[in-house]
Amino acid sequence: MKLPFIPAGLMLLACQILAVPIDIDPEIEASKRIDELHKQYQHNIFKTISNRTTGCTSKNIQRRKEWSTLSKEDKHAFITAIHCLNTLPARTPLTTAPGARFLYDDFIVTHIHQTPAVHASGLFLPFHRHLVHLFQNTLRTHCAYHAPLPYWDWTKTYADPRNADVFDGSEYSLGGNGVYVPGRNPTRISLPGGLSKDIPPATGGGCVTSGPFAEGRFEVRLGPVGYEPRGPEGGLGYNPRCLTRDLSPEFGYGTRPSAVTELVDGCEDVECFSVGMDAPRGVPGGIHGSGHWQVGLNALDVYASPSDPVFWLHHAHVDRVWALWQGQNLEERTYQVWGTLTAANDPPSEEATLDTPMDFEVLGEPRTIKDTSSTIDGEYCYVYE
């Protein structure tokens, strides 16, 4: 007996009427929710600045864009600018970091020095927001990069980071995966606050061999600090080597869309948001940690992780998620502060306040938490697209 054809729409309606369960992917639903949150965030930002004629206005606001949405020309310009930073002399004295040879290294040195204070603490979000800002300004002033600052939306590639445009290995990427190295042991990484974690081997493990940051085209000079064998001079000595990656779908899961919606929808205060974003004990490693750990191996080193250029796109997206959270209620969420001034309060330190200064060493003048709290006030004027 031949069964009649039933249109999909009628079948769905019948299932709803008969209460037949329909499998709905929670991550697809969470992605839709992120889109809604983003629209609300943008609406609130532009409403706030709509009547401004000075400072940050709707006419001069900078737009940060997801990597895959950039034109090939803008991707090439960003890549060229990073290489440019690796031709200009470092400002860090050799007595401070003998391995710092070029301007790019200044950012790694500062991150190494400040890591014990700016992770798992009240300084995590504000410090990295300004660090990314300083990086963008340096690309502009020293290397004539004037295209949008890109971010990598790992919620769209969480199932397998090897499928991300940013890692496709083309000339318009930040390079591919590392060469697969079989038979490796887990990498034990040191985390601020006296913690450690074993990161299992994934899909690569060796040198990046494709794209603009492949072996022979890009050099890592500092570190490791956070895992063995550690580099000379506590990771601050000259230790030239290739960029290595070990793209991991396991840790990609830590940056799934629902992990983001749980924070933005579920947190009413910045303590809840910060702990959820930065907690290394999350499943499988918290959003921030999972962003680093799904990239490996240079990115595993919490101290010297800016050695991998994807650091800047990852932290721009961490900042975007913070901006989404703030943007749901700008009046109440912009100037919230919490936590102490050391990782996991080890050693014990005083409470952070809006007036707490942060040290950026040779990169720029100190900034307070208040200075970095708003993306549309003070020296900032940007919105995420």
From TrEMBL:
Task: List the Gene3D superfamilies hit by this protein, alphabetically.
Answer: Di-copper center containing domain from catechol oxidase
Q: Which residues form the Tyrosinase copper-binding domain?
A: 308-319
- SUPFAM superfamilies the UniProt entry points to: Di-copper centre-containing domain
Tell me which PROSITE patterns the record gives.
PROKAR_LIPOPROTEIN, TYROSINASE_2
Q: Which segment of the chain is annotated as a signal peptide?
A: 1-19
Please give the InterPro entries that the UniProt record associates with this protein.
Di-copper_centre_dom_sf, Tyrosinase/Hemocyanin, Tyrosinase_Cu-bd
Source lineage: Eukaryota, Fungi, Dikarya, Ascomycota, Pezizomycotina
- The protein here is known as Tyrosinase copper-binding domain-containing protein
GO MF, one annotated term: metal ion binding
Which of UniProt's keywords are assigned here? Answer: Metal-binding, Signal
Q: Which organism is it from?
A: Dichotomopilus funicola
Q: Tell me where on the tree of life, at the top rank, the source sits.
A: Eukaryota
One Pfam family, short name: Tyrosinase
